[in-house]
Each structure stands twice: as structure tokens, then as C-alpha cells.
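Record minuted for completeness.

…
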Amino acid sequence: MTQPRDFGFDADITLLRDTARQLLRDRLPTDALHRLVAAEHDPHRPPACNWDPQLWQQIVDLGWTTVAVPEDTGGAGMPLVALAALAEEAGRAALPSPFLATAAATLVLRQCQSQAARELLHEIAAGRTATLAITPRSGAWETHACDLQLDDGRLHGSAWYVQDAAKAEVLIAKAAHPDGLALVAVPVTTKGVELVPDAIVDLTRDQAHVHFDAVPAGSAQLLAPPGTGAAALEAAWPAVLTLVAADICGAGEWLLQTTAEYARTREQFDRPIGFFQAVKHPLVNLMIQLDQARSLTYHAACAHDCEPEQAGKFARMAKAAAAEVAAFGANRAIQLHGGMGFTWECAVHLYTKRQKHNQLLYGDAMYQRARLAELLLA
């Protein structure tokens, strides 16, 4: 099946994107974002989880959490292109919320066939938050890597680099079992679950590692029974990578536009600094790289909807391109803002830190191209 024109970006998706952009522009302008997440500049401060639950409830009321949920489980059943559009707007606003973590969890749940997965999808559509607890301490992103064991209906071990863990109500945990990997739904309030906050550079997110001490994992919590968890994760992974790439594109667009506006107004030698080629050329290079990454991202999203056999390849390409533009765009934004760009008061640092986190999340450009080579040469 070939891809539709404009990646299937129709009037409904355009309206969804524009409504999201206006909401975040009104409710979370840059100065409000800075007050929310960067009020404390002490480098020795403990890890914090700064977000606006009222804004999150408004997002739920507008149906963002239903977009990726199938219609037969209470959602809107929209294509991945629609979810990518929302992720791009979240990145443009550097939105502190459980949206991306919950969306990634939703994409994994869609690949599970159990009744427990269907019930959790219903709850997510209604606003329940979730996140993936699937990474070992080594930081390996491969599906088989796991530090958590499922033994006699109990979970023992740990999961690391859990995104927005302090905002999540449910953990989707990957656990090793003699019959193969399983996926288990674990409420964060379950006895034996310990969330340990991580100190990370990104002020718009929180992260934690989670210890499981004989945590109950009955049949009603099995999202993917032993032996089926790996297939569910691998099927969902291209869509998860595409979401991160979309977030990068949104944040990159903010950095580009903010820096271009600064170059139009900041004067040196009686001219706006944007007059000088040393400023023009990096901005043009950023614009070109950003357009390439965005095109690859929506191509990957549309492939997930229309050419699933190609989705893995295109998603790796999108994440690789996005990771590179994350690094380049953040660097140029700081440099072209001059001395002000290095200060805490300049909001560029919020986006730079978000981009650095995104760049490495689920693998940087080098990692993605190595996996892409494996796909192409297999």
C-alpha cells in the first residue's frame, strides 16, 4: 500500500494540531514555562517534578489521550500522523506533562491482545497516565535486555530510565520469564514498588529508576503473557521512536524561530546581527536540517499507518536525523544568542536541555544508523 498525499494529514488532524498549538500558546507561554520548571537554579537541588495538573486535565478533556486508543476501547482511533502532530506541538511548547510517556505506553498496549490491555486502554482514554518501565541499568534499548524477573506471580528486580515516572499512575513493566518476555501493568502505589528519582538535565521532564520487591503480578495484570512481550514491544517500537522525533522537531522549530527573531532585533555595528553571513548561514542550515527531520518523521508516521513493513526502517531514519538536528539546533541557538544564551534567564536553556535528553532517549543518531544498517543488510 502506498502512502497518501501529504502523509494523510487531513482537515481533522490539522484542526487537532491547531487547537493544541493555541491551547499551549495561551496556557503555557515561554515565561510561564520558565517560572514553572526553572524557579530553582541551585545546582545542588534535589530532583523535582514540576508540571501543571490543571493543564493536563484540560489536555485530557480535549481528547489528546484518546487519539492513539482504538475506537473499540473507547478512543478516537486516529492514525499515528495525528499523534505525531500533537507530539510536535508538545515539543514546541516544551510541555511538562505525562503526555509523551502515556502515548508511548498506549502504542505498546495496542500491540497486546489481552483483556488487561484493553481495560487499561479504556482507562488511558479517560485520562489515566502510564509509562514504560522496560530499560535495564545498562541503558541498552534492545528488546531482550532486562533486569526484571517474573517468578511465581511476583516481580523482582528493577527498571531504569523510566520517563515521567512521578506523573504516571501505571507502570508497563517488561519482565523476563522462562517462557519469554512478559509485559505487566503495575500501579505505582503497589506495595513493593519504589520509585527513586533521577537527577537529569531536562527540567521539563522527570525520570526515575524503579525497584520491584516481590511485587504481585497476577494474571489480571498480564498485558502480554510470557513469550509474547518481545513481539509487542518490537511492533510498537517504530511508533515510539517516531513520537520522540516529532517532539524534537517541535522543540527545534521553537529554537529556530526564537533565534531568528533575536537575530532580527539584536544590533551590532549599527545593523541587526541577522545581516551578517556568520549568523545567516547557521540559521539556514538549521532550517534545512529541521525540514529534513520533519519530513522523515511524518514519513515514518505515515508508514506505520499505511506501510507497516517499512515502519521500522523509516522510524530509525527519522530518529537519527532528529537526534542530529537536536544537537545542532541547540548549539546554534545558544551561540547566536551570544552571552545571553548561556544564562539561566534565557529560555533557550530549557529547550537545549530537552533536546539533549531527546537526542539520547532510545538511542542517538549513531545507534539508530547501526540498527538501520542491520535492517537493510539482513
User: Anything to note?
Assistant: The longest strand covers residues 154-163. Strands lie at 130-133, 148-151, 154-163, 170-175, 182-187, 193-197, 207-216, 222-224, 267-268, 271-272. Residues 150 and 195 are 19 Å apart (CA to CA). Residues 229-265 form the longest helix (37 residues).
